[in-house]
Amino acid sequence: MSLTPDEVKAVAHLARLALDDADVPRYATELSSILQLVDELEKAPTDNVSPMAHPLDLSQRLREDQVTETDQRELFQEIAPSTGDGHYLVPPVIE
Predict the structure, then answer these.
(1) pLDDT (tens digit, 9 = 90+) per residue, 45-55?
(2) Residue 87 has pLDDT above 80, yes or no
């Protein structure tokens, strides 16, 4: 797929990017080559490939879920302007 300079300007406008007119042909060439690569990738046979989150079959090392910090809520809430029932109270911002 080849992009025209007008299409590049339209995309730049939609993305709210300022382009110099002298740079438009270079961007058209570079974006066209990117789209050509995407077209080539779409031709790859992926019908029998299952989606995966990571290319390697790894598992996450987990630790026991244990509390490692002391509860300092009262200390932190002493300096808050307003608290109630252990929560910070804030003024409404949307009416």
Answers:
(1) 988 888 888 88
(2) yes
Sequence-distant contacts of 87-95: CB under 8 A, at least 24 apart: none
**Measured between alpha carbons, how far is 68 from 8 in angstroms, rounded to an integer?**
55
Number of CB atoms found within 10 A of residue 13's CB: 11
Chain centroid to CA 76: 33
- The reported pLDDT for the residue numbered 90 is 94
Task: List the domains of the chain with CATH numbers.
Answer: 5-42 (1.10.20)
